[in-house]
Amino acid sequence: MKIVFDKIIELGKLKTISKNEQIVNGVIEAINTKLLKKGDRLPSINNMVEGIGFARKTIVRAYEELKNRGIVESKNFKGYYIANINTKVKLKVALLLYAFHTFQEDFYNTFRKELGKKYHIDVFYHHNNLEIFKNIISTISGKYGMYVIAPIQSGETPRLLKKFQSDKLLIIDRFIKMPQDYSYISQEFENSTYNRLVYLYPAIKKYEKMILFFKEKTDYPQGIKNAFKKFISEYKINGTIEKSYNQGSVKKNTLYFFISDNHLWEVLRDCKYAEYKIGEDVGILAHNDNAVKEIISGGITTISADFKEMARESAAYVKYKTRVHKIIPSETKRRNSL
């Protein structure tokens, strides 16, 4: 303990730093000079008050900053310990996504690039499974300085997310109704998808039939299904919703609308074997844009939010913590498939 006290008191000679910075930098200096190593226990809050004479709230705030950076961790009723000797980390971030889909890979790569090396990011996936989501929330709670979470659309989710301080949580991708002091950067599916379908109507009406593949009890947004049903009703489109695609069942003069890429690749393969021309014999429309869809089969038309923009906005929130309530609009990438 004396090692830590000495380093903190020594920094008191610098009149340009606050008492909070004095504690934080004192611990960091003790780590950098190898006086403290991973697993070492730090003085308790009470011992720090006695040892250096600072106010309790100052010490709590300094320890909290060290926790946020992942340098220190607190163990229930056992005190504070050195968890990481990489003292260059500015903030430790937990990123919780649905799964490693291609478009979420675009989000992660941009998010990682925007934050840079001084931010430590741990990535978790819940796969739209509520039990997994609960377990991850329980595991990460209190261990990070910032939480960036793509939530499950469940009645239990707001209660789970309220465990986090509002200034330490950013909700991304799917919108969840939360108190105003919580920030979000989300998509909106129903109105956006409907408006994009209306925009594409001149191309859609050339096909005899339109099929949306939609599986219930998945991470598929219900808003897309609602938008599709509204569109085919109002514009008198011969449209149906199917749970899955059966291999070899591709039909001419049909427009296929995909949320999952799995069925998309199957239809493209069957079109190739049947020698159907994409964009003429068969139409293809997909949700969520990525680089592969830009080039495959002459380009796939997509309705998609800009996940790179979402990532840039999310990184800005992590850096500056300026409250944000933003919906990333869906855009149409018109290509040869439609």
Structure, explained:
- With 338 residues, the chain is α/β, with parallel strands linked by helices.
- It folds into three domains: 2-82, Arc Repressor Mutant, subunit A; 91-187 and 307-329, 3-Layer(aba) Sandwich (Rossmann fold); 190-304, Response regulator (Rossmann fold, 3-Layer(aba) Sandwich), CATH 3.40.50.
- It contains 13 helices and 14 strands.
- It has helices at residues 2-11, 19-32, 45-52, 56-68, 102-115, 130-140, 157-161, 190-199, 201-204, 222-234, 261-274, 291-295, 307-320; strands spanning 72-75, 79-82, 91-97, 119-125, 146-149, 169-173, 183-187, 209-213, 239-242, 254-258, 282-287, 301-305, 325-328, 330-333.
- A six-stranded parallel sheet has the order 4-3-5-6-7-13. A six-stranded mixed sheet has the order 9-8-10-11-12-14, sandwiched between helices.
- Strand 3 (91-97), helix 5 (102-115) and strand 4 (119-125) form a beta-alpha-beta unit.
- Helix 1 packs across helix 2, helix 2 (19-32) crosses helix 4 (56-68) and helix 5 (102-115) packs parallel to helix 13 (307-320).
- The longest helix is centred in the N-terminal third of the chain and has 14 residues, at 19-32.
- The chain is elongated, with a radius of gyration of 26 Å.
- The model has no long low-confidence stretch (mean pLDDT 92).
Strand-helix topology:
Layout lengths: L1 H10 L7 H14 L12 H8 L3 H13 L3 E4 L3 E4 L8 E7 L4 H14 L3 E7 L4 H11 L5 E4 L7 H5 L7 E5 L9 E5 L2 H10 L1 H4 L4 E5 L8 H13 L4 E4 L11 E5 L2 H14 L7 E6 L3 H5 L5 E5 L1 H14 L4 E4 L1 E4 L5
Parallel strand pairs: 3-4, 3-5, 5-6, 6-7, 7-13, 8-9, 8-10, 10-11, 11-12
Antiparallel strand pairs: 1-2, 12-14
Helix pairs in contact: 1-2, 2-4, 5-13, 8-10
